[in-house]
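ugh ok fine here u go
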Amino acid sequence: MTTDVTALPPGAAATSAAAVIALDVGGTSIKGAVETADGTIDSRMEVPTPVADGVNAVVSTIVATIEALRTAASPHLTVVSVGIIFPGAVDRAAGVARYSANIGWRDLPIRRLVADRVGLPVGIDHDVRAAGLAEARLGAARGVDEALFVSIGTGIAAAVVTGGSVVSGADGMAGELGHLPVIPEGETCACGLRGCVETYASAASLARRYAAGAGTPPLPAEDVIAQAGRGDVIAQRVFGEAVVALGRALVGYIFVMDPSLIVIGGGMAAAGSALTGPLEAEMERSMVWRQAPPVVTSELKGDAGRRGAALVAWSALDTSSPQSGAHDNASTEDQT
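structure:
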């Protein structure tokens, strides 16, 4: 069955004045917005994440940002819930940030801490899963039952869309595509394994590996890709190895899950066909007896995470089990 992604989330039709607060919490900044049921952005805000000041400071900043956005909302709007997304290991059902290296969280009951202080239902989710949810319901994978959303930026992570739903796996770690070893005896990854996709194909790795080969300061990944297109031999080698690594990971996923579409998001999506073209060609070479699915770039671009956080917020309105795992699960399962 194809998911009806045009349907409003639970609670959205309760009042035309309803709105949610969506927060995308990263290691550098907290991006927030007030969004209405029809997807209209009423107000936005971005503040630095005070990681160096500790966990309590980050939580306090999240709460302060929510309150500031609630104050900034248009008078005719009533904020009814909050969605918070962030990187790391996220236990949606328990409302706990199990581990986030970028922010310094470990076993933090973030949903309860925030909900108690703002007096609103709160939903949480992994940032890439939320972005994949938004892309599946509102963007390039809209109406597609089987797809993979791959976010390529400083690191690489994915959101698995199957049966029209985004899944999290047994331990909330589905989609760790970046730490799939694909180059035997390859470079050591920060995770401790060797030859991981992320070590070759992330934006940070492209910049690092080009700088090491060319003996120059690092270039942004999109510039490395552009240099490859202009015939720069070192850029061609680095980019070629990135395409091989990512292509191998995607081929493995295709044979196991059989997606009909792959969506590339994150900063690297800005490269467009300069990335997707070589990647599709690499996948075709590796598959031989079957056709690879098309590879497209995100329609929601840098707004995918924030749009996903809004969907997570709407899912928190499931009053059948207030502040329970029921509404958290709805953020990645069929809500229609």
